[in-house]
């Protein structure tokens, strides 16, 4: 059984692009969510040990997801993947417990390097 991985982004195209960027042969079981509300449901079901999280989404954004994860004491490993590359956004997500921040559109080599850096691959 692979690592339960959640890709949470309101853009279907972005979700597919992240899935395609995953390293070959990486043993993960992928779930998808289109907003933070759906994402939290998936995480509460135990299908989000690792989360690739967008920041700008309807209903509940990535910042709110990070805050809830902390409040509910979830142990999810979160990598933010966002087009919002303002230094304040990066600082804020890191302070909320994200492991790393990767710029959209995601680059396969960058993702693999981040996963290797943190011993996740």
Question: Any idea what the CATH architecture is?
Answer: 3-Layer(aba) Sandwich
The biggest beta sheet is recorded as: 5 strands, parallel
Mean model confidence by pLDDT: 95
Low-confidence stretches: none
% residues in beta strands: 15-25%
Coarse structural class: alpha/beta
Radius of gyration: 13 Å
Describe this structure in words.
This protein starts with a strand and ends with a helix. Helix 2 packs parallel to helix 3 (62-71). It has a 5-stranded parallel beta sheet, with helices on both faces. With 121 residues, it is of the alpha/beta class. It is built from 5 helices and 5 strands, in the order E-H-E-H-E-H-E-H-E-H. The mean pLDDT is 95. The longest helix has 10 residues, at 12-21. It has a single domain, classed as Rossmann fold (3-Layer(aba) Sandwich).
List the keywords:
121 residues; 5 strands; globular; Rossmann fold; 21% strand; alpha/beta; single chain
Topology:
Elements: E1 3-8, H1 12-21, E2 28-33, H2 36-44, E3 50-53, H3 62-71, E4 77-82, H4 87-95, E5 100-103, H5 108-117
Parallel strand pairs: 1-2, 1-3, 3-4, 4-5
Helix pairs in contact: 2-3
Short description:
This protein has 121 residues and is of the alpha/beta class. The chain is 40% helix and 21% strand.
């Amino acid at each position: 059984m692979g690592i339960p991985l959640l890709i949470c982004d309101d853009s279907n195209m972005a979700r597919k692009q992240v899935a395609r960027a995953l390293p070959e042969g990486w043993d993960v079981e992928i779930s998808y969510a289109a907003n933070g509300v759906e994402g939290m449901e998936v995480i509460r079901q135990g299908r989000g040990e690792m989360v690739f999280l967008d920041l700008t989404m309807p209903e509940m954004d990535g910042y709110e997801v990070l805050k809830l994860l902390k409040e509910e004491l979830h142990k999810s490993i979160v990598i933010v993947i966002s087009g919002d590359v303002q230094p304040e956004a990066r600082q804020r997500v890191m302070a909320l417990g994200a492991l790393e921040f990767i710029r959209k559109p995601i680059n396969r080599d960058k993702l693999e390097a981040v996963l290797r850096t943190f011993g996740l691959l």
